[in-house]
Design a protein that fits this description.
Helix 1 (9-25) packs antiparallel against helix 2. The chain is an alpha+beta fold and 106 residues long. Helix content is 42%, strand content 28%. A five-stranded mixed beta sheet has the order 1-5-4-3-2. The protein is globular and about 40 Å long. The protein has a single domain (4-105), classed as RelE-like (YaeB-like fold).
Length: 106
């Protein structure tokens, strides 16, 4: 079965924010980050959506959310929800952020 990648507006904004930061430091770093997501991490999640660790939450809306680090960017985390037909990218966040607050309050 072929799944479809769905990048939410929030996740897209997260990626854009990180790209702006990286581009200010080193444009090549921004390109590598984008490649790590779209050429590596996202295709891998489409092939093996259950590979990520389940996010522990008491909120039913987050019961199927999983997370996985971005390859070559270990401080960045992809939060996603796999279904039979899609892999929905919910957030792409730096690990130093207040992740429980962001995920539980969003």
């Amino acid at each position: 079965m072929t799944r479809t990648l769905v990048v939410t507006e929030v996740a897209d904004e997260n990626i854009d924010e990180q790209l702006v930061f990286f581009a200010g430091e080193d444009p090549d770093l921004a390109r590598r980050f984008l490649s790590a997501l779209y050429d590596n991490a996202f295709p891998a999640l489409l092939r093996f959506p259950q590979v990520g660790t389940r996010w522990k939450s008491n909120k039913p809306a987050l019961s199927e959310v999983r997370w996985r680090r971005v390859p070559d960017f270990p401080n960045h985390i992809i939060f996603y929800r796999p279904t039979k037909k899609t892999v929905e990218i919910l957030w792409v966040l730096h690990g130093s952020r207040d992740l429980p607050f962001i995920l539980e309050e969003d």
